[in-house]
Amino acid sequence: MDNSSLTFAYPWYLLIGLFVVVGATLFFAKLKKRNYQALETFANHRLIPELLQGYSRYRRILKSVLLISAVVFIFSAMARPQKGFQWQEITRKGIDILFALDTSKSMLATDVNPNRLERSKLALIDFISKLEGDRVGLIAFSGTAFLMLPLTLDYNAFLEALHTIDTNLIPKPGTNVASAIDEAILALKNSPNQKILVLISDGEDLEGASLRAAKAAADVNLKIFTIGVGSHEGELIPLKNQAGGSSFLKNQDGNPVKSRLDEETLTEIARISKGAYFPLEQTGEGLERVYSEKLRLLPKQELSQRMKQIPIERFEWCLLAALVLLMAEYGIKERPSKHAHSFVLTRFFPKIFGAETKKQSGLLKALFWCSILISLTACSKSPEELYSQGLYAEASKALQKLLDEDPKNPALHYNFGTSLYKEGKYEEAEEELRKALEDSDLQLQERAYYNSGNALYRKGEKYLGNDKQKTITSWNEALANYQKTLKLNNKNEDAKFNHDLVERKLKELLAQQEQENEKKGADQNQEESNDQQKQSQDRQNKEAPQHEKNQDQASKNDENSKDKTSESSRSELREQNTKVSEPSPIPTLGTSSSMERYRADENEMSKEEAEALLQALRNEEKKNLIQPKELQNTEEDIVERNW
């Protein structure tokens, strides 16, 4: 900071204020004199001092001085007094553009108005007016080429160089497009940014080496955007002789030369170098299309940084002084309120005294509210200042107003989204940051992806206790944004740290969810097993009496068979009376009679053994169930950059 002298950004306001003060002083002085003369018409001059008793002449003068001083300070504040300065870092972003303009005799053809060369120069002037922060250079070429203006930010210097170009600038005749491309490659050799050559010509390459030069340009990542000037039908080339007359350019045989637009060559040059071809047209819209469809969309790189002196505003003190003076003037009364004579004067002579009082009161109110309005307007802080002071809600409101005026500004969407993130409004923040990705600035895209990833992570945290599936979805989207950040800048350590942290937490959450699902499945299987066992026991209880009845019937049949065999008197083939019975149902555990009988017939285990085995199996099943693990509570958190 420097203690320099006091300066004014708008000094003409001081001059305006001077005229206002002088005019107001003369007006009120004349008004007072007129009022006094009017009073003399109603009363004798000897009675006037008594009638004016209570009015203080000194108070009136003091009020006038205070009012005039307040007006002076108000105009001083409007002039924006500045004292001292502070340094601020300014970053310039842009691309490097070289313009190569054909200055051969064929550019004098009048198939576009006024001729090809002049139409090209006018289009270049319009083009330059749209650039901000881009470096530009100029190459002139005909039979050879030379760099008229190296890359510069001085657009006025470019326009001055452009105005000096004519067809007599380069003595060597012809149209050597290759030399212009070679000169551009040499001029942009050390440029680390986007390399652009805008070549304006009718395309009649008399040397024939332009395609070779275009391949060399492609090898060094130089994009060539070609602009065709002229018409397919062609036009004669007018010339002026020394006598002031006009003729047409002729070849060696004495025939007039007709110059035609060679779009094929220009298109092929653009294709090889990964550029584009546009015809200039009659009004120069070809160059306009190069800017709107191509160059405007290219990512702008950071070209330079410099420190700039920002003056420190001091208008607040002037406004404060004006407000204090106005309040003091308002508080001073010209007469005591209890004075009857003054009341009579105001009551019965309102045109003389009341009118002046009302006018002064109206002027006072107008000046007061004007100063308040100026104070509010001048003292309003920028969104960046509010954000840096931690006033995120106020910063968001200010940015919302700016977006209402410029809704397609990606930088405003980025700032608005970042401010909403600080407020904790993560869903709205993520939406605004997504709109910022429409910008072609790669650095802005990197920041937008990074902050959007943080917003998605925080949004997922909010659902962690209620809806883990939404948390998983948000964290997956956050990982994708961190990956895009690293794709734009693989050296972004904060993005890498956040990516690894969120990835680890996501794996832990998925493992926890899987364990919970397995536990639910095991519990469900246990319930189904218990239900099936209960149903089996009920079925066995119903079938046990039928089983005993079947066994009694089988015993009777065996006894009858033995009696019939013993009574046989002849030696006959013994037929064994066999009966195939249905499989015996499994006895119900806990029915003593059926269990004892079944155990005797089938040599089955005892009731106590079966129950012990069943209990052991249940205990083993509970023992083998997977117990879910809670998500580890770590103190690690994502890194938030204050971008």
Automatic annotation (TrEMBL):
Keyword entries, A-Z: Cell membrane, Membrane, TPR repeat, Transmembrane, Transmembrane helix
Query: From start to end residue, where is composition biased (Basic and acidic residues)?
Result: 536-577, 596-609
Q: Where is this region: Disordered?
A: 514-609
Q: Name one Pfam family in it.
A: TPR_19
Cite the VWFA domain residue spans from the record: 96-269
Q: Which domain of life is it from?
A: Bacteria
Repeats (TPR): which ranges? 410-443
Q: Answer whether the UniProt record assigns the keyword Cell division to this protein.
A: no
Q: Which residues cross the membrane?
A: 12-29, 61-79
Protein name listed in UniProt: VWA domain-containing protein
